[in-house]
Design a protein that fits this description.
Number of strands: 15
Shape: globular
Distance between the termini: 11 Å
Order of helices and strands: EHEEHEEEEEHHEHEHEHEHEHHHEHE
Helix content: 25-40%
Strand content: 15-25%
C-alpha cells in the first residue's frame, strides 16, 4: 500500500516520502482501518524532527476516520465494515494514518451525520484541548483566557470551557474572531498591545491557557511574559500547551506537575465520543480548511509549515482495499 513515512529524522520536507509498504496487520486489541480521511497536526512534523525516540521508519498522520478491515485478537466491539474514527498507532507500527490502511488502538463508532473528513479533524485536537483544560484548573464561574484561540487546540478549548460554564476571553486574529464571538467568547486581538486590550475589558482572567502555535519556534519565549503580566505576575496561573522552552524561562506551567500528581501521563481519549456526538449534532466544530488527496501531501505540508493552514488540513484516501 502507499504510506507517508520517514526513515531518518530531519525537516519533514526532506525526510518524508510516500512509499509502497506492506499492509499492517493488527496486533491483539487493535484494528486495521481503510483510511477515508486523515487529519494532519503540527505534531506530525515534530515527529519527523525527532520528538518520539522510536524505531524507524515511522508514519505520520495521527487522526483517522475510516472503515474497519480487520480486527486483532480480543476485539469484540466492532466488526469488519463498521465506520470508526480515532488515533492511529504510530508507536508500534512503521506506518500511521497517512496511508491506505491504518492501525487504531483506540476508536469510536462514527456517529450518523458526521462525515469522515470532519471526524478526522477531531482526535488529537479534542484530546489535547480536554487534557489541558483539565490541567488548567479553570472551574465553572471563573474566567479563562485562551491565548491562540485561532489554533485548533485553542478553538476546541474555547468550546469545551463554555460547555462547562466557564467565561472565556479568547485572543485570536481575524480568521476565527467572529466565530469565537458567536460561541459566546469575548475576543481580543493578539500581538502588540494585547495586555492593554485585555485589561481594558475590566475582567481579569483567573487562569490562562496558552495554545498559540507561534510559540513552537525554537528559542522563542513567545507571549508567556505578557500572559503572566495579565495575571499580576503569577506564572502558576498560566499553563502552556505549546511553549515549553518559554515555560522553563518564565515559570509558567506545562502540565508536568499534573502528570506527576495523577501518577503518570494519561491521554484523554475518554472524551472523544462525547465531542464526536456533539460534532454530529452541529454543537461542536473543528474547522476543516482544506482537503488533499494523499498523493498531494506535499501541498498540505507546505501550507502547514508556512503557518497558513487557518483550520485543519485533512488528507483523503479513496482507493478500496481488502486484507
Amino acid at each position: 500500500m502507499h504510506a507517508l513515512s520517514f526513515h531518518a529524522h530531519g525537516e519533514p520536507t526532506k525526510v518524508l516520502r510516500l512509499d509502497e509498504t506492506p499492509l499492517p496487520v493488527p496486533q491483539p486489541g487493535h484494528i486495521a482501518v481503510q483510511v477515508h480521511a486523515c487529519g494532519l497536526n503540527p505534531a506530525d512534523w515534530a515527529l519527523c524532527r525527532g520528538l518520539s525516540a522510536r524505531k524507524l521508519p515511522c508514519g505520520v498522520g495521527l487522526d483517522v476516520s475510516g472503515t474497519v478491515l480487520a480486527v486483532g485478537e480480543g476485539v469484540t466491539n466492532v466488526a469488519i465494515g463498521d465506520a470508526v474514527y480515532g488515533p492511529a498507532d504510530f508507536r508500534n507500527y512503521p506506518t500511521a494514518g497517512a496511508a491506505r490502511v491504518a492501525i487504531l488502538y483506540y476508536w469510536n463508532r462514527l456517529p450518523n451525520r458526521l462525515p469522515h473528513v470532519d471526524a478526522a479533524a477531531l482526535p488529537m485536537v479534542v484530546e489535547t484541548a480536554a487534557r489541558y483544560l483539565t490541567w488548567s484548573g479553570a472551574e465553572k464561574g471563573q474566567t479563562l483566557l485562551v491565548n491562540g484561540a485561532g489554533s485548533m487546540v485553542g478553538f476546541a478549548a474555547v468550546q469545551m470551557a463554555l460547555f462547562e460554564g466557564i467565561r472565556v476571553i479568547a485572543t485570536a486574529g481575524d480568521t476565527f474572531a467572529d466565530r469565537l464571538r458567536a460561541m459566546g467568547a469575548t475576543v481580543v486581538a493578539h500581538g502588540d498591545g494585547m495586555v492593554a486590550r485585555v485589561r481594558a475589558l475590566g475582567q481579569r482572567p483567573d487562569v490562562i491557557l496558552d495554545t498559540a502555535p507561534i510559540n513552537l519556534k525554537p528559542g522563542s519565549v513567545g507571549a508567556l511574559p505578557d500572559l503572566i503580566d495579565i495575571v499580576d505576575g503569577d506564572p502558576s496561573r498560566v499553563i502552556t500547551a505549546a511553549d515549553f522552552e518559554g515555560a522553563v524561562k518564565t515559570g509558567a506551567r506545562t502540565g508536568a506537575e499534573r502528570v506527576q500528581a495523577e501518577g503518570g501521563f494519561r491521554l484523554r481519549w475518554d472524551v472523544l465520543e462525547r465531542y464526536g456526538e456533539l460534532a454530529a449534532e452541529g454543537r461542536f466544530n473543528i474547522p476543516v480548511a482544506r482537503t488533499f488527496a494523499l498523493e498531494n501531501w506535499r501541498d498540505a505540508l507546505e501550507i502547514s509549515l508556512a503557518g497558513q493552514a487557518r483550520g485543519k488540513l485533512v488528507l483523503t484516501v479513496s482507493d478500496a482495499i481488502a486484507l
